[in-house]
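Hi everyone,

Forwarding the result from last night's run.
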Amino acid sequence: MKIAIAKERRPHERRVAGTPDTIKRYLQWGFEVTVESGAGENAAILDSAYAEAGATIAATRAEALAGADIILKVQRPRTQDDGDEDGLSDIPEGAMLVALHNPYGDPIGVEAYARRNLIAFAMEMLPRISRAQSMDVLSSQSNLAGYKAVIDGAANYGRGMPMLMTAAGRINPAKVFVMGAGVAGLQAIATARRMGAIVSATDVRMAAKEEVESLGASFVMVEPDGDDTGQTEGGYAKEMSDDYKRRQAELVAEHIKDQDIIVTTALIPGRPAPVLVNDDMVASMKSGSVIVDIAAEQGGNCTQSKPGEIHTTDNGVIILAEYNLPSRLAADSSALYARNLMNFIELMVDKDEKELAIDWEDEIIAGTCLTRDRKIVHSALLPADETPPAPAETADEPADDDTSSEQGA
């Protein structure tokens, strides 16, 4: 069995899908591991560290991926549709491709996986169950994004964060408002509190109130519609009614006027990020205030965000809308992501026999699998009147089909 780890090639991506620690574990399970030269350099992991752990260092991507059974990546391969070379051409047909695939944002890429006969697993589709917590890449990466958002906000805020008593007088603490109390939001709250700020937060989910207050922040929220909890069965925030959004916007607009740093974290899978801070709210803020928009890659939560940029508005508000915050803490985010993947791969391995043993009925395996046997199999990506095809008897082995020479676009 061979695992390959390639260097990430998408812009703004500094993470890597494997670390020396996880490679040692793969070797114990019976895998050979090949790492493309330079794959970890942006995450402060040198080729020599991988070699010491027992990995083979390949000079090129093609050499690293040749003969691989499982390919581990952070982001999906680049393709000609991205204006780049065909990122699937080096991947062996029938191989497993484990990564963050953005299947809603890149359905063409998923179709290319099926044509290439790849078994693609999307880690962002992981079921939200207790057994999958150690594999939850969204939580591990969002944790770091929330932390980094506050650090960046504080770095761009021209004043101190905690209250300071000096001989020349008192400096008041900064006021930080976190919009969205998911994993990223809760970490942002905790970080801002540790830095001495006065923190408040809002979320559409009533369940978030207790979590926010347990971290020492105040909760800003209008009463929900009837018995609406504001969350899906999976525990994620859901889109609320127009009337609720209007009332919430009015409350938030009044609260924002007095805030120094705002961190926005709201995302909806497969859809543009919802607007939380509009032009009027930005106009009401004080000069020197900071907005950190974590949702920049999906358009942003602020109407004046410029995704990928830091800019200052006409009234002096600094808006940070940089891409891929976890990647800017590449050493730590890579370590967490690599462990998430390792725990996922462990589900597929018979460690006694040192061979792949995939249970296609396992809800974690089934819930993350996008393509298999040349078909798109994830129910969320199929038309409403279609059901996923039944697993093949020998689905854990590549199909032997000479007609499949087409490569992914």
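The mean pLDDT is 88.

Cheers,
N.
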